[in-house]
Design a protein that fits this description.
The protein is mainly alpha-helical. The chain is 71% helix and 0% strand.
Length: 223
């Protein structure tokens, strides 16, 4: 039985040629792998950016609407203050009803946090990533403010019904709640403007205004 023995390479030139072919194949494979990975990152960033910008537009619509109803909220705050003083004097609210609903609305941060958890944000350009971080840090603060503002307005709603009898302790607590509502209204308006400017820098405009929200919040204080 004859065994075929592989022929040895003849000289360094042939050996170098064989090695060169192998190295070239490896380099091509790595380059193709990197190209595919870069393309996938590009697609992931594109999808993430679309999702985040849609969420930002939703939040910015609320911020824009808060600016639109600022004068209406001021009227409601003034009405609440007047009704508190009426209770302090007479022991009961004026005979008419009042619109003392909270102006708060939902602020979304979930899409940004989902993309952050998926590590898609690390592929964003550094300047854009930094700007998004500032926007969403502020959005989280404003979401917390809205919850506290809602709590204050829920307490102030005790004043909304005409002829409601309340005591001295109620008056003290309502004055506290009124001051909380005023503070968060001021903070929200200041930062709503800043958020709209930040959105503009990121190329995102506020979404559609909620006309039902505007109409409801700007109903007559004596409605």
């Amino acid at each position: 039985m004859r065994v075929q023995v592989p022929k040895p390479l003849h000289g360094w030139r042939e050996f170098a040629g064989e090695v060169g072919i192998i190295v070239l194949g490896v380099v091509i494979a790595l380059a193709l792998g990197q190209a595919v990975q870069a393309w996938q990152w590009h697609e992931d960033v594109k999808t993430a950016r679309t999702s985040i910008q849609r969420e930002m537009a939703f939040d910015l619509a609320f911020f824009a609407d808060r600016l639109r109803i600022a004068k209406c909220v001021d009227r409601h705050l003034a009405d609440a203050e007047q009704r508190i003083e009426a209770v302090a004097t007479s022991g009961e609210t004026p005979p008419s009803n009042a619109n003392l609903e909270s102006p708060g609305r939902l602020i979304l941060v979930g899409d940004y946090e989902a993309q952050e958890a998926a590590d898609n944000l690390i592929h964003f350009p550094p300047a854009e990533l930094s700007a998004l971080g500032v926007f969403y840090d502020q959005a989280r603060f404003m979401s917390e403010w809205t919850e506290k503002e809602d709590t204050a307005w829920n307490e102030l709603e005790l004043l909304s019904k005409g002829g409601t009898r309340l005591g001295a302790f109620d008056v003290a607590m309502l004055r506290r709640d009124l001051q909380i509502a005023k503070n968060y209204e001021r903070l929200t308006l200041i930062n709503a403007r800043r958020q709209i400017d930040r959105g503009r820098e990121l190329g995102v405009a506020p979404g559609p205004s909620r006309t039902d929200y505007l109409a409801y919040m700007c109903e007559s204080a004596a409605a």
